[in-house]
């Protein structure tokens, strides 16, 4: 399929280049580092080769979210955003930007998002999970009350927010002790992000801000297979669990979340997600440079779905959500 739009596609600046490298052995680490540093060379050539018209670019992980000092985190976010804006302006027909935000300080994050959208022309934000605070030992999830003004700004600007994975802190990941292979994209990324998304759903956030749209990668971080049980297990026993949200959580999943195919190139998983959330809320992505463009595109272009759904998932859903026009 020609004309695909991909939106979980990363780059790095020198200050974040070492992040995300711990999951790759030596020779592959060098390869991924080269991919991360490139925008207009090999990346663009691969896009041409595999029918990707546009990438929405975002900073690698955990990057800003892993910098406990608020001022330093904000400095790196602004530096990354300014660099990305310089790259986008060179080829706006092929690249658009998603803002990095220092969520350690909700006020700074709010102002930076507004700057990125109104002044730099970015199409939304991508944040790498929870943010570390106070020397790195404390963490903040975004269902907390101090983030409500930030979410109000996201809704006011009418842009999507991509909740990207990161590992739990070592103190919170003892279930993985002795099994480091479970960390990162193998398993821990998805579990950590799914819990964060459920916290957002249960918090009442989407009752207060019903137009918010959150994006989850990797075919929904396993949530399409778990949402029914979350609601059913809570519903059949009266007063079993109480949370602020006014609706079953699955209703927010269907109304306030989009999924992407990043790093999950499996037809059975795609069909399950389509049955759960609908083809109108799924979008193509590759997860470059941490996955391979050819793997993503060759699978998606031939997977056993209808051509109307392929067009929606591959192109038109993203163009509508990010206001990229209908061309």
Provide structural commentary.
The chain has 327 residues and is an alpha/beta fold. It has helices at 26-37, 42-49, 70-90, 106-118, 148-157, 188-202, 205-208, 227-235, 249-256, 267-277, 293-302, 307-321, and strands at 4-11, 52-59, 95-97, 125-128, 131-133, 138-140, 161-164, 214-216, 257-260, 282-283. The protein has one domain (4-321): TIM Barrel, CATH 3.20.20.140. The strands form 3 sheets. Strands 4-7-8-9-10 form a 5-stranded parallel beta sheet. It has a 3-stranded parallel beta sheet with strand order 1-2-3. Strand 2, helix 3 and strand 3 (95-97) form a beta-alpha-beta unit. The longest helix is centred in the first third of the chain and has 21 residues, at 70-90.
Can you give me a brief rundown of this structure?
By secondary structure, the chain is α/β, with parallel strands linked by helices.
Q: What is the level-2 CATH architecture name?
A: Alpha-Beta Barrel
Low-confidence stretches: none
* Alpha-beta classification: alpha/beta
Helix percentage: 40-55%
Can you identify the CATH superfamily?
A: Metal-dependent hydrolases
CATH topology-level fold name: TIM Barrel
Number of domains: 1
CA gyration radius, whole angstroms = 19 Å
* N-C termini distance: 15 Å
Question: What integer is the average pLDDT?
Answer: 96
Question: Which band does the percent of strand residues land in?
Answer: 5-15%
- Quickly name the level 1 CATH class: Alpha Beta
CA-based shape: globular
